[in-house]
Structure formats: structure tokens, C-alpha cells
Design goal:
binds 3,4-dihydroxyphenylalanine; alpha+beta; 11 helices; about 40% helix; about 350 residues; rod-shaped
Length: about 350
């Protein structure tokens, strides 16, 4: 019986050494030390021994049991430690990994270009003012020398809010009269803002777009002030060597009226697809404020003269950044918007 016990102990310890995980360990425990395990099985034979031998063999049993239990506890501790180590390794966080950058908001390209444009005029002594998008016919047309039934109204396809008097402004020019009626000359303002037209959309037309109006009124202002200021603007906005061209154009609120073109930045005036072979690109309308317009706000046209302009900032941005379609500005596609900062 002693030999059997020694053999069992030796085998069980050898098996225990091979046990690789907690599950296998539990199997070993049940098989060796369980209430129906091998040790108990052998122990049952104890009763068949002569009484004189029993105490010694019983002691041997207890020793073997203690040894096996001790080995089991040791193995269990080791396997527990191993399992914990594995789990920690699996959940390890690499604190040196770079974090995910938060996506930062930015200004809209229209806002950015308006700031660039108005910054130039502010540096020339102009003030920035804003006005209502829902406007009265009086300011949008009447005080700009465009009376009811004047054919020039066809130049603006108007969206009316409450006809015939309330409309969405078709340009920023109504602010000319609003500024002049509340102050005396000298006037130097630029007016950025939204405008609306009942218009089919395409690559160069939107029903909502921005304009920047400019107005200067003082004693002795001439066409030379207009040309000088707007040419300096073009040089700042595009290239220092850009050339400007002024041609006659008609707007009811200016006389003479002009449009200004810049030499094509793609072909430098030679003629290409962008400038449609002309070498020039039109960027704004302007002119000397019509004496009737001055008169209607109570300025004396014999004493004061002025010049004005209106431009589309989206168009300026399209030329400057080579943007092929004005509709990109207002569909909120981040792939487009994120290119500007
Ligand atoms: N308001 C005009 C338009 O929307 C643009 C314009 C032309 C404004 C000449 C002006 C100007 O102030 O002098 O077509």
C-alpha cells in the first residue's frame, strides 16, 4: 500500500507539473484529490490492513495528501499569476501612441474672402457696415435712380416678400442710400452682405450670393480716385503686377458707369480658356455716383461727388483659388470647405 501511495504521489506530482491552465488544474484536482479521487480510492483500502499497520500508513496518507495539496496550491497560485499577466498584456494601453486630433472648426471661405477684401478697404480708410437683407423697394430701386416700370429693373430678377414694397435685396447697393441719409459727407464705406435673385443656378449663378458694395463721397472726388483705389485693390488681391482695365458699362445709379477687368492671371493677358481668349477677366461694376442719387438723399451734387462699386466675393475667390463652380460654396461639402483657413 505504501508503494502504491508513493507511486500515486509521484505520478500525480509529475502530471501536476504538466498542467498548463486553470481548467486543466481543476481536472487534476478532481481526479487526484476529489471526494471520489484516486487518493480517496486508495484510502478506502486502509480498512483492510492489520490494525497495527494502520497508524503508520494513515500517517503516510496524510503526508501524501498534504504534499499534494501544497503542490496544488502552489501550482494554482502560479497559474493565477500567469492568467493575470496575460490579461494585463492583452489590455495594455500604449500611452505613447499619438492621440486622435479633434477636428477643429474653421471659417467659411466666403467669410475669409470677405475679410481679405474688407481688410484692404479698411486699410484705405473705409468703414465696414451692414444692412438688411429684407429690403424696401425704395432703397433697392427707387433711391438708386431705378423708378417703377423702369426697364433697368430687368437687370435684377427680384424675389418679393410682400410686393410691391418689400423684397429680398438683389444687390448691396441699397446701403448707399441708407448710409448717406443718416450722415453727411465725407463717406467711405464698404458693405458686405447676402443678396438674392430669382435665378436658375449654374456654375456661375446662385440665387443667394454675396456682394461687397463700396461708396466714397466727398468734395472733389473724381474717376481717378475710383481707378486708383480699385487698381490698388486688384494688385493686393491678385498679383502686384496685375493690370486693370475700365470700360463703359451701364448702371442706373452711376454716371459714367464702368466695369473693371484684370489681366488674366492664367495667361497673363495673352488669351486662354479662363479669359475666353480676351486676356481680361471682369471682376466688378463701378462708376461715379449719379447726381440724382446724391440729390435724393439730400446731398448737394454741385458740392459733392462720389464713386461706388459692387463686386461678388465668391467670384473673386473663384478666380483667386481656381474654384470652378459657385455652387460649391453653399452645399456644405467638408471636402471643399476644409481646404480654406
Ligand atoms: N449693384 C450692381 C449689381 O448688382 C453692382 C454695382 C455696379 C454696384 C456699379 C455699384 C456700382 O455700386 O457703382 O449688378
Amino acid at each position: 500500500m505504501r508503494e502504491k501511495l508513493a507511486a500515486l504521489q509521484a505520478r500525480a506530482l509529475a502530471e501536476l507539473a504538466d498542467v498548463g491552465d486553470l481548467e486543466a488544474l481543476e481536472g487534476w484536482r478532481i481526479r487526484v484529490l476529489g471526494s471520489r479521487g484516486e487518493l480517496r480510492e486508495l484510502q478506502r483500502g486502509l480498512g483492510g490492513l492489520p490494525p497495527a499497520e494502520r497508524p503508520a500508513v494513515g500517517q503516510a496518507f496524510n503526508q501524501a495528501k498534504n504534499a499534494l495539496e501544497g503542490a496544488f496550491a502552489e501550482r494554482q497560485a502560479a497559474l493565477n499569476a500567469l492568467a493575470l499577466e496575460r490579461e494585463l498584456a492583452a489590455q495594455r494601453v500604449d500611452v505613447t501612441l499619438p492621440g486622435r486630433p479633434p477636428s477643429v472648426g474653421r471659417l467659411h471661405p466666403t467669410t475669409l474672402i470677405i475679410k481679405q477684401i474688407t481688410d484692404f478697404f479698411v486699410s484705405m480708410g473705409f468703414q465696414v457696415v451692414e444692412g438688411p437683407e429684407v429690403e424696401r423697394d425704395l432703397y433697392n430701386f427707387e433711391l438708386l435712380n431705378i423708378p417703377q416700370d423702369h426697364p433697368a429693373r430687368d437687370m435684377w430678377d427680384t424675389i418679393y416678400v410682400d410686393p410691391p414694397e418689400v423684397l429680398l435685396r438683389t444687390h448691396t447697393s441699397p446701403m448707399q442710400a441708407r448710409v448717406m441719409e443718416r450722415q453727411q459727407p465725407p463717406v467711405r464705406v464698404v458693405v458686405p452682405g447676402r443678396c438674392y435673385r430669382y435665378e436658375a443656378q449654374d456654375a456661375t449663378h446662385e440665387w443667394m450670393f454675396y456682394q461687397i458694395e463700396g461708396l466714397a463721397v466727398d468734395e472733389g472726388l473724381t474717376m481717378a480716385d475710383l481707378k486708383g483705389t480699385l487698381s490698388a485693390f486688384a494688385r493686393r488681391m491678385f498679383r502686384p503686377d496685375v493690370r486693370t482695365r475700365f470700360r463703359c458699362d451701364y448702371f442706373p445709379f452711376v454716371e459714367p458707369g464702368v466695369d473693371m477687368s484684370i489681366s488674366c492671371h492664367v495667361c497673363n493677358g495673352v488669351g486662354c480658356r479662363v479669359c475666353k481668349g480676351t486676356g481680361w477677366i471682369e471682376i466688378l461694376g463701378a462708376g461715379m455716383v449719379h447726381p440724382r442719387v446724391l440729390e435724393m438723399v439730400g446731398y448737394d451734387p454741385e458740392r459733392y461727388s462720389g464713386w461706388a462699386f459692387g463686386m461678388g466675393p465668391e467670384r473673386i475667390a473663384m478666380l483667386k483659388y481656381d474654384i470652378p463652380d459657385i455652387r460649391y460654396f453653399y452645399v456644405n461639402d467638408l471636402r471643399f470647405l476644409e481646404q480654406f483657413r
